[in-house]
Every structure is written in structure tokens, then in C-alpha cells.
Amino acid sequence: MDKRWRAYFAETVGVFLVVFLGGAAVCAALLNTSPADVNLWVVAGIALGEGCALAVVLPIVFRESPGCLNPAITLALWVCKRLETREMAILIAAQLLGALFAGAALRAVFPEHAYFHATPHLQAALLDGPNITIRSEVLGTVTEGLLTFVMTFAVFGLLIDRRANRFGGAAVGVARCAVVLAGFQLTGAAANPARWFGPYVWQFTVEQLRTRSSYWDHPPYWIGPVLGALAAGMLYTSFLLPPEQAKEAAP
In 3D, which of 15, 68, 52, 7 has the Cα closest to residue 171? Predict the structure, then answer.
């Protein structure tokens, strides 16, 4: 198989695994638990599941593809001139396709009351009572931006930068654990548009979610991660990447 098509295939399969395992960790943890009863131990279990999934899958995929299993990071790599426009666009399409398949698999495996939790949503801590307001949207977008900043900074420092050791991918998984611990009870800690998009598409097959207004779900999980990834990528490339590596990034 051509090298570029191997990269696209790797991103599709890799995102499928990360989104499926991340969503499954949430659904399994909340299978017999009310959201009101979620405590630190439940969140820690979810964080461990999501972090371990990324720690295993990311190093494997990174051998073939620079996309890093995250459309926001892929876009940051393009802005930092590490990907061509066509390559960036196809990688993002492959990632979203993998996420779509993962959402379908989650919907098939888990009952409705568990799948209800598969898609990250703004949590009660950011809402004004039961309602989503402009304030909630802004806080959610900022939170997802900060969480994605952490993930992108880790990817650039532990994978993109050639000074990193060969265990960098596993360390990115540790960063994912920290992000979930910090943000799960605020936004669900997607920190990746694909992690949100895959389960979101299929949530309309769930009775409890079918009548839910979805308009307000979009900004925090698209705009926040993109802005956070761009900020981290440009910061690392401009100030922390060695000059010789920065020159390699130029067209």
C-alpha cells in the first residue's frame, strides 16, 4: 500500500480505537451509576481507560501517520507547515470517518441508558441551572481549548520534537489521563473533535437525546479544541522547537 494511504488507513483505525475505547470507558463506568453519583474514583477509572487507550494506539499509528488521531492537532500541524493542505484535509476526513464508525460500534454494544453518556456534553458545573447559556458556551469553549492546549503541547514535546525519547507516545497517554481528571465533570474532557463527533452523530437514535437541542453542543467541541491546538502548536514551534527542526518545518 502507498505510504500516504497507509497513513490515512492508520488514522481511520487509530481514531476508531481511541474513540471507541474512550466512549466505552465512560459508558461502562456509568452503566449502573447515576451521573449525580459520579465521584473521583469513577472519573479516575474513566481517565485511566482513555489514557491507556491513547498510550497504546498513538505510538503505533505515529509510525505511519503524523495526524496524531486528533483533527485539531492535525490542523495545528498544517498551520505550522508540517503538513500539505491535501494531506491535512484527507487525514481529518479519515479521522472523522473512524470516529463515525466508533460511534456506531458504541451504539450497537451499549444499551440506550449507557450510550446516553457516550457523547461529551457541558456538565452541571458550567450550566446556569438546567439551561445552557452564552456564559456556559464561553466557559465550555475555553475549557475545551485549555484541555486541548495541554494535549497538543504534549504531542509536540513528546512526539514531534526529535529530542523526545521513544516512550513519548505513552507519556501523551498520561497527559490524557490528567486532562480527563481535570475536565470530565466540566465538559466531558473531549479535547478532540473526533472524540465528540463520533458518538454525537448516533445520539439521535437514543430516545432521551432525540429531542435535545443540539445547536449549543457544537462550539465548545469544535472551536475550543481548534483554538487550543493552534495556540499550543504555534507556541511550541516558535519558542521551544530547536532552530534546525523549525527550519525543517518550512516548505
Answer: 52
Which helix (H) or strand (E) segment holds residue 71: the answer is helix 71-79
Contacts of 29 (CB under 8 A, 6+ apart): 42, 45, 46, 49
Burial profile 3-15: b = 16 or more Cβ within 10 angstroms, e = fewer: eeeebbbbbbbbb
Q: What is the DSSP letter of 118?
A: T
pLDDT confidence bin for 148, thresholds 50/70/90 = very high
**pTM for the model:** 0.94
Could you give the residue ranges of the DSSP H alpha helices within 165-215? 168-187, 193-202, 207-210
Structural domains of the chain, ranges and CATH numbers in brackets: 3-249 (1.20.1080.10)
Q: What is the pLDDT of residues 185-210, one digit of tens each?
A: 999 999 999 999 999 999 888 887 76
Residue 2: C-alpha distances to residues 5, 6, 81, 106 (Å): 5, 6, 22, 31
